Amino acid sequence: MLSLDIFGFKALWSPFFFLLLVAVLIGYFLLTVTYRNRFKHSEPLTRKEAIIFTITILLLYIVKGSPLDLMGHITFYAHMTQMAILYLVIPPLLIVGIPQWVWRTVLSKPVIKRVFNFLTMPLIALILFNGVFSIYHIPDVFDVIKVDMWLHAIYTSLIFILAICMWWPLVNTLEEYQTLSGLKKVGYIFADGILLTPACALIIFADTPMYATFSDPRAWMQALELCVSPSMLATLDLSGPEMFNSMSLLHDQQLGGVLMKIIQEIVYGYVLAQIFFSWYRKEQRDSEKVDKEALNQSNPQFVK
């Protein structure tokens, strides 16, 4: 098998994307620390927020700037790993890593607030994210988007925005944006998992390779041009993804669907556990408060 090193440093490590993310990280700390006092109602940046946002940027680089991005254009399983991390792991971390006062400042703009409130309505968010994600993996749609740089950038950015909207009702901590109670969040997670299952099942149980951009050498080379310059590809004698992967095309495709589903179950399971225990602790606190108030009313002398 060939090594990815043949594509060169630029294709492997995306230095310009790395510099862009470094600029974003610097901007984040300038906004939330250095120039925070210029904003009304701003609050000090917490260590948790700083660590989570930094991890988010690191993950974003790993997914879209490291050799994993190049592998995502060569093998389907790497592509689905990218998708799982990009849409199921990074958005909730991004929401939590951005301070509340920054979210309030951005969402205070009337137009942004109206659009955002609509897109983050639980039912709308579920349908839009899972619908757009599933449409993307219809073979005819996928193969068209995968070979066009602008279509690919626009569509994947749209899915990312809708992923943020989908995660918002679950993980945002702004009191005025709490649209789901504890039990409703549990139902929301289960519904999300169910809606994502058909796309994964279609990929896992297909008996033939479905995507030309991972099976047809010509379409595969066109897709590869999204991260490798055509001039570089012209110097290489490549016949298809089998030169970099010992698995058959079908097994590569099936592994991609399985990895997507496994990562989804791990992430959703973790979030579900967090939601359940948070709801349980809240119920316990409320119960203790009610008991204490009842005791205070009936026997005030026993209450300190």
Automatic annotation (TrEMBL):
<protein>
    <submittedName>
        <fullName>Cytochrome c oxidase assembly factor CtaG</fullName>
    </submittedName>
</protein>
<dbReference type="InterPro" id="IPR014108">
    <property type="entry name" value="Caa3-assmbl_CtaG"/>
</dbReference>
<feature type="transmembrane region" description="Helical">
    <location>
        <begin position="150"/>
        <end position="174"/>
    </location>
</feature>
<feature type="transmembrane region" description="Helical">
    <location>
        <begin position="115"/>
        <end position="138"/>
    </location>
</feature>
<keyword id="KW-1133">Transmembrane helix</keyword>
<dbReference type="InterPro" id="IPR019108">
    <property type="entry name" value="Caa3_assmbl_CtaG-rel"/>
</dbReference>
<feature type="transmembrane region" description="Helical">
    <location>
        <begin position="45"/>
        <end position="63"/>
    </location>
</feature>
<dbReference type="Pfam" id="PF09678">
    <property type="entry name" value="Caa3_CtaG"/>
</dbReference>
<feature type="transmembrane region" description="Helical">
    <location>
        <begin position="258"/>
        <end position="280"/>
    </location>
</feature>
<feature type="transmembrane region" description="Helical">
    <location>
        <begin position="12"/>
        <end position="33"/>
    </location>
</feature>
<keyword id="KW-0472">Membrane</keyword>
<keyword id="KW-0812">Transmembrane</keyword>
<keyword id="KW-1003">Cell membrane</keyword>
<feature type="transmembrane region" description="Helical">
    <location>
        <begin position="83"/>
        <end position="103"/>
    </location>
</feature>
<feature type="transmembrane region" description="Helical">
    <location>
        <begin position="186"/>
        <end position="206"/>
    </location>
</feature>
